[in-house]
Amino acid sequence: MQPDQWLAQYDSKIAAAKQKSEQATSQLGEVGGSAESPDGLIRVSVNASGALTALDIKPAARGMDPDEIASAILTAATQAQRSASGKVVEIMTEFVGESPALDFVKQQMPHGYSGDGTDEEEPESELKRRDTRPDDDYFTNPPDVMA
């Protein structure tokens, strides 16, 4: 192979890599996720890194308990982050393929979510797991905490 031919091939590989990189950067810049509470009163949006970009709480939520509102916001934010994470993993899989670089990207996703379909379902929110029995019932029959 002639040096000029080798250099031309190298230049073409560099140009293709640059184009692919610019395409991935553009796609990642457009990634985001949105989710809303089951009752539709709270909606959140996040960017590709999972940071909250919008929070919409409808006036009908005014009568809700503050703990319910907080739980709904956190649950919706987690769902939105999972959605965005899946899109990021999809784009990066096209860009770098199955590789240590992709494994690193998966490790950086919020809540340890890799976005590749192998993740467990998100656990129930704290509010749903909370014991809401009346105090008399709770203290008469406390939960087993020493398992």
Automatic annotation (TrEMBL):
* Region (Disordered) residue spans: 21-40, 102-147
Q: Which InterPro entries match?
A: YbaB-like_sf (IPR036894), YbaB/EbfC (IPR004401)
Q: What is this protein called?
A: YbaB/EbfC family nucleoid-associated protein
A Pfam family annotated for this UniProt entry:
YbaB_DNA_bd
GO molecular-function terms, A-Z:
DNA binding
Superkingdom field:
Bacteria
Q: Which Gene3D superfamilies match?
A: Nucleoid-associated protein YbaB-like domain
Q: What species is given as this protein's source? A: Lentzea tibetensis
Q: What residue range is the signal peptide? A: none
Q: Where is the composition biased (Basic and acidic residues)?
A: 125-136
